[in-house]
Amino acid sequence: MPRPSEDQNPGVPARAAALRMLDAVLRRDETLDQAARHSTKGLSPSDAGLALAIAGEVLRRLPLLDLTIDRAMRLPLAEDAKARMVLRMALAQRIGLDTPPHAILATALPLVEGGPRRLVHGVLSNLFKRDLPQGAALPETVAKRWEDTWGGAEVKAAEKLLAHRPPLDLSFAGVVPDDFPGTSLLPGHRRLEDAGDVTALPGFAEGGWWVQDIAASLPARLVPSDAARVLDACAAPGGKTMQLAAAGHQVTALDRNRSRLGRLRDNLERTGLQAEVVEGMLEDHRAEPYDAVLIDAPCSSSGTYRRHPEVLYRARPRVIADMADVQARLLDAAVPLVRDGGSLVYATCSLEPEEGELQVRSFLKRHSEFMLRPVPTIGDFGPSGDGWWRILPTALKNVGGCDGFFACHLVKRG
Ligand SMILES: C[S@@+](CC[C@H](N)C(=O)[O-])C[C@H]1O[C@@H](n2cnc3c(N)ncnc32)[C@H](O)[C@@H]1O
């Protein structure tokens, strides 16, 4: 995409970067993080942060923004028109970031220089005089899928959570200091609203804690405390490896992705925790059977919609089906790596039954040597279905919610 003349207003480069990011996410299927890496090159950290925030606000509200735009147009605007994206960004800044109308206009119009400038100016001037819809909305296909699977209350809860940036959850390696800010919802956990710069929080340099959504902290809690050797089979960037190491297990952290393993090593170094780090595929991993294997499997990530709203556009049925195939292969590959009587913990940050309930039921049909051990109730999280944790959007809804998640504990008969 050509870069507009960005010297007109100091706020334009951040908006131009947001435009490039949205194009990369919605047309080239990139994640926001991937898109941010190449779209924000050369920007100051604060401009890069602003570009990311604008793109995120658009993705949280896209269906409502389009409805508002379509109602304000006399002639329909093409779905992929640049003017539509500029209008979406302008409305998202007004609604989600409270940017003043004059600042929005001054930075939006240069993006359509030599194009439909008058149209964009007219539509925005008109819309800024009206009440704009404040909420967020799931794409229609996702809302329908989740309503069919989980019911309308879960869709409503998801849309409510999506409208706000989520609180920050921290997991602690040891006892949480009494004077540490925030609210504790589980042992070893603190939740902070508007945490700001995490590196400025007490204990960052000492590595006593790391950022981890509370739902993502559940699977490692299923590994029995007496499991000596534990394989974290899809380990990077290491949230669960750190939990397991902090709980005293002897952990092998395996992952196929070298750069993500680099982040895992950095995390271990910062927290001073120990694990054997192995780069490789679970399918090729050969070792003495472990007391427990944790598979935090790659998935559609649809449960992370609050922090990564682009998953709502990327987690299409084809992607879900492909990831379910990968997960089945990983589960099968783990079977010989679990000792008799040992544990296999399976988890995904997905709200799709194909990556959770259905996956496990079909594994149990293929492997009669395994059985489900019901998960316990800890804090507000209790077992559902056949005895797993199915974490839905209504979970913790009065205290800021959490990621959608699935986790279960399988035991190999001894
Ligand atoms: C959901 S992420 C894991 C997150 C991690 N457990 C944590 O808590 O930070 C899934 C990981 O699986 C890894 N992965 C995917 N296929 C794999 C395979 N066949 N063998 C090993 N790792 C794999 C990916 O590289 C990715 O890092």
TrEMBL record:
State the active site: 349 (nucleophile)
Which molecular-function annotations from GO does this UniProt entry contain?
A: methyltransferase activity
**Pfam families from the xrefs?**
Methyltr_RsmB-F, NusB
- Could you say which residues bind S-adenosyl-L-methionine here? 234-240, 255, 296
User: Start and end of every SAM-dependent MTase RsmB/NOP-type domain?
Assistant: 132-413
Q: Identify the keywords attached in UniProt to this record, alphabetized.
A: Methyltransferase, RNA-binding, S-adenosyl-L-methionine, Transferase
Picking any one GO biological process from the record gives:
methylation
Q: Which InterPro entries match?
A: MeTrfase_RsmB-F_NOP2_cat, MeTrfase_RsmB-F_NOP2_dom, NusB_RsmB_TIM44, RCMT
Q: Which domain of life is it from?
A: Bacteria
Q: Which PROSITE patterns match?
A: SAM_MT_RSMB_NOP (PS51686)
Similarity-based family: Belongs to the class I-like SAM-binding methyltransferase superfamily. RsmB/NOP family.
Protein name listed in UniProt: RsmB/NOP family class I SAM-dependent RNA methyltransferase
Q: What organism is listed for this UniProt entry? A: Sphingomicrobium clamense
